[in-house]
Each structure stands twice: as C-alpha cells, then as structure tokens.
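Field log, afternoon session.

UNIT: design team B
ACTIVITY: writing a sequence onto a fixed backbone
BACKBONE:
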C-alpha cells in the first residue's frame, strides 16, 4: 500500500483500558484471597490475627496440579472430587477461556502475569529499552515450560482414580494449599535466591517466567491453538511501520503475518492498540472481523467467571469437604508432613 494513501486510525481501541481494569480487579481478588488464607492458617497455628478468617476456597486456583488430578479423576469416574474441587473448576474454566478467548487467562487474569508485566515495563522505562535474548537461546528456553507441563501430565496420567483419591485424602493432600503457602512463608535460601534472580531477570526480559518456565501458560497456549479468537492483519491497509512487532511481548512478527496463531501469543492486544493504520490489525471471532472489542472481552470474561463460580457454589462443588477440626489437627504440623510416595 502506498504510504500516502493510508488512513490514520482516528478512534483508538479500548483493549488496554479494559485489560487494565480486569487485571487490577483480579489481582485485588487474589490479594484478598491470599490475606484471608494467611489469617486462616495463622489462626489455626494459634497465632494472633486481627480478625477471624475462614478458608477461602479460591486459594485452590494456586493448586494447578491438584486441579489436573481432579480433572483426571472426574474423567475416569464421572464424579466430582470432594477434596479441592475449586482447583478443578478453576483449571477447567481457565482452559476454556483460552479455547474461546485466545489465552485470555495469561494476558488478562493471571496475577503472576500482571506482576511480570509491571516488572518488565518498569525496566523498559528505567533503561529506555527492553532486552531480548538471542533467538536460538529464546527457542531453547521456551521449550522448558512445555517440558515441565509434559512432566506434570506424565505424573498425573500414571495415577488411576484410586491413587488420586488416596493422595488427596492423605494428610499432605488435604492441606496441599497450606504446604504451598508455607513454601513462600519459609523460603529456603536456594528458593529465595531463585525468586530474587527471577525478579531481576524480569526487569530486563519481558514476561520471563511466563515465557520460559510457566507450565500453566504452556497449557493455556496449547488450548489457544484452537481458539476462534484471532488477531488478523489486513495487508492492504498495513503501512509496514513495524510498531506492532516491536511492542509484542511475545516477540511475534505481527507485521509479517496474516493471522496470529502462535501458542506464545498471550492475547494482550498491545499490537492492535499501537497500530496507527485504520483496519490494518483487528481482533476477529469465528471469522467476524473486529467483532471483539476490549469492553466485550472484559464483560464476557467477567460474566463467565461469575456464572461458573456461582454454579460451582450452588451445586456444592466449590468448598472442600474437609472438616475444620481436621484443619486444626493438620495445620500446626504442616511443615512436618512429607509428600506421600
């Protein structure tokens, strides 16, 4: 297209405003769940807390392996698990988000992704640029998250329903959420060093954890491969300015593609937002160009999240069937419980 004939986009899209709202709300929700869970655990440990807190089932969203186990259990038995059911509900819901809305969990909902984005954008502002790993190294490192996902799949698929039920009913399985919390409360020097290193790297490399190590993100990316939501480029309207490719945190050559099909695309829509040419980039759904807007996507994500959450609660598939007395017995000795073999 002749650069003198292109039409500048007058009305900016609303993706980044709505994405920021969804990211902020979901991050605050996770903080609220985290604070409530910390108070719940400390109270059972006999420590002083400012107010009594019950266990928030949403903390099971941080137990993706339990979610995979319960999904495997459900597929084999047809029965909803009674221990950590919210882990399965949230895992399945986030995978469905990726199938329908193009890895929306990673780009719109994941609190780790939100913090990671803040880190690398802060680093970009501080240093005036973003640092990119060599292409060969980037490719090697990106395989790590798929290797980790494959390892988790292998471990879970080796277990039958009885094994999964036995594991989750063990003292370790019952309070897997407390064990997860204690990992961060009582960090070993090695774990603390790794997390510190990851934070520093994330200031320089966009979405370092998400891009290279997150098996959850790998799963969402694979699910997104069949998504009807696609970012498309109209070659006749494109002016080849390259802005879309330069802002893409996933380093995709958006300015050279007709559609973005890569599992690495996190659905952040930054490329669409920065494009100056009218009609050059769009977000389509099932072949309908431009049907997806930031507002529609935010509303759809919110509605599905609330409907699934309320449905799980009303059908009794949200709260774990673990008596409070059992929590009182196990939480004080959580650090002494070993992983069952």
């Amino acid at each position: 297209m002749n650069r003198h004939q292109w039409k500048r986009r007058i009305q900016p899209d609303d993706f980044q405003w709505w994405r920021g709202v969804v990211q902020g709300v979901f991050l605050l929700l996770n903080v609220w769940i985290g604070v409530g869970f910390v108070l719940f655990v400390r109270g059972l440990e006999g420590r002083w807390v400012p107010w009594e807190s019950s266990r928030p089932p949403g903390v099971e969203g941080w137990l993706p392996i339990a979610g995979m186990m319960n999904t495997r259990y459900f597929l084999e038995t047809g029965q909803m698990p009674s221990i950590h059911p919210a882990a399965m509900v949230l895992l399945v819901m986030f995978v469905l988000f990726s199938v329908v809305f193009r890895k929306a969990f990673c780009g719109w909902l994941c609190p780790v992704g939100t913090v990671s984005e803040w880190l690398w954008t802060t680093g970009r502002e501080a240093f005036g640029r973003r640092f990119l790993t060599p292409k060969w190294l980037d490719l090697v490192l990106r395989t790590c998250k798929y290797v980790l996902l494959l390892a988790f799949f292998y471990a879970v698929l080796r277990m039958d329903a009885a094994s999964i039920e036995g594991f989750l009913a063990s003292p370790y399985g019952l309070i897997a959420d407390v064990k997860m919390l204690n990992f961060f409360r009582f960090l070993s020097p090695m774990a603390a060093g790794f997390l510190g290193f990851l934070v520093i790297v994330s200031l320089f490399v966009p979405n370092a954890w998400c891009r290279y190590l997150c098996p959850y993100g790998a799963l969402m990316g694979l699910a997104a491969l069949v998504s009807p939501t696609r970012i498309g480029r109209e070659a006749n309207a494109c002016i080849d300015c390259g802005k879309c490719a330069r802002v893409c945190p996933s380093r995709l050559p958006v300015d050279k593609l007709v559609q973005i099909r890569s599992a690495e695309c996190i659905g952040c829509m930054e490329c669409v937002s920065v494009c100056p040419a009218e009609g050059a980039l769009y977000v389509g759904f099932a072949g309908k160009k431009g049907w997806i807007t930031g507002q529609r996507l935010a509303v759809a994500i919110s509605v599905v999240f609330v409907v699934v959450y309320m449905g799980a609660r009303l059908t009794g598939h949200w709260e774990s069937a673990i008596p409070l007395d059992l929590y009182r017995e196990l939480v004080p000795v959580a650090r002494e419980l070993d992983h069952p073999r």
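LOG NOTE: The longest strand covers residues 229-233.
NEXT ACTIVITY: expression trials, pending approval
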